[in-house]
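ok trying this again, last paste got cut off
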Amino acid sequence: MAYDLTGTVKTIFDLQTFASGFTKREFVVTTEDKFPQDIKLGCLKDRTGLLDAIKPGDKVKVSFNLNGREYNGKYFVDLTAWRIEPADGAGGRPAEDERLPEDSTDYSEAEDAPF
C-alpha cells in the first residue's frame, strides 16, 4: 500500500550495512497534526541515497509503502520510503520520482534478525 506523509525531519540515523550487503537508513518525521507524532521511516538498498539531500529541520513530503510481516511468531510493520521531496513544492527536485512496487521489499537479504 502506498501513502504520503508531510512533516518536519526530526533526525536521520546512520546507514546500516549488513553482512549480506543489504543496506538500510532510517529517519524520523514529525507530523504537523493537532497532536504531532514522530514517525520512523526507512529507506532500503539504493534508496538510502534519498536522505543525502535532506537534513533535520527540513519540511518534507514522504511517499512510502506500508509493509507487514511475521518473524518467529512476532509481527512487524515497516514504513519504507521511496520518494522524499520538499513539502512546500518549491526549490529543488523530488529526491525520487519512481514508485516502488508494493512487493519490492526483499527482507531475505537482511541478517537473520528483525529490523
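PB: full thing came through this time. The domain at 2-109 is CATH 2.40.50.140 (OB fold (Dihydrolipoamide Acetyltransferase, E2P)).
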